[in-house]
UPF0235 protein SAMN03097708_02229 (Thiohalomonas denitrificans), 102 residues
Amino acid sequence: MPAWFEWKGEELLLSLRIQPRARRDEITGPHGGVLKVRITAPPVDGKANAHLLRYLARTFDVNRAQIEMVSGQTGRDKRVRIRSPGQLPESAAIQREPKDRT
């Protein structure tokens, strides 16, 4: 399994590298052991974190309350938990974990 995502039941844990002040919001794809995400917000007073979580909510088709920043509140490298994502964007290269057939 790639290093930038991990499934724990219905929860998806993502390792992200954020590029603030980008031209547009986008997931650029895997980059080393992380998923690179560009966002337009500046890294000031928590604006980038709030913007990132709203963007991920739209992108993964969940309510904002279903996303939690686990670590990295003050840096560019972050860990984010998404509960029951409604969709998986192609650019993220994430596969659903196979269900046990026991």
In short: The CA atoms of residues 49 and 73 lie 7 Å apart. The longest strand covers residues 11-19. Residues 47-59 form the longest helix (13 residues). Residues 1-21+38-71+78-84 form one domain.
